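new request in #modeling-help
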Amino acid sequence: MEKKVALVTGASRGIGKACALELADAGYDVVINYVSSEAPALAVVEEIKAKGVNAKAVKFDVSDKDEVAQGIAAILEEFGRIDVLVNNAGITRDNLIIRMDDAAWEAVINTNLNSVFYVTKPVVKAMMKQRSGAIINMASICGVYGNAGQTNYSSAKAGVIGFTKALAKEVASRGITVNAVAPGFIATDMTHDLDKDKIAENIPLKRLGEVDDIAKTVRFLAEDGKYITSQVISVDGGLTI
Ligand code: NAP
């Protein structure tokens, strides 16, 4: 049987790393994208290889169109196919709008939204030739409900949700599913400085999410959710009910 291949952007740590490990458990060869954390990315590669599947770390800045184009071309050249794409890389640059400078706006829109277009376009082209594939975009509940201090981030994630729904309609006839996962508060570097006890009080399930809560949802969408497309799956401990 032909090997199946997954690409996870921003997989050196946090949610992306957990998704990469989970997809490796499901038998995928996994490409680990990162931008600065080389040693952690290489450690993820070793952890995945120990599971008996192939892995490779590929450095590119998802917000740089040319770097992405070269990176994806190299991955397709070496692995021959991409069956699952997880658009996960993301950043925050929080501030109230009156204090938000152009750089904070542009960095978040470029890294969290424009990146999804740059990465998905060449990947979906390959998937269309394969006539199969699963694309999973990491959105956020902020993209549905908004969050004060995050106009940049909420806009980018809302854009990712619109992108997901439009692309799902374009490529369904080629056997490709496109879905978004909308995490609530997940314990990673991104949420490290927040008051977790206070946040947990307002979450119906009374805890922050773990990276595995997201990774298992991603694995489900990639492996078992073959009749699910264009959906936004909230994984937020009930925060938005
Ligand atoms: P994280 O722990 O801060 O990790 C971010 C990852 O993205 C790292 O692997 C980082 O690579 C990579 N990355 C950042 N900028 C990049 C770029 N320009 N090019 C390539 N890779 C880049 O974040 P996380 O909490 O796991 O979040 C992952 C995703 O989930 C993000 O899209 C985030 O918006 C979303 N999310 C998170 C939460 C949460 O509560 N944590 C909630 C909702 C949504 P390096 O290590 O090389 O810098």
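bot summary: Residues 9-16, 33-37, 61-63, 88-91, 111, 138, 140, 183, 185-186, 188-191 surround NAP (CB under 6 Å).
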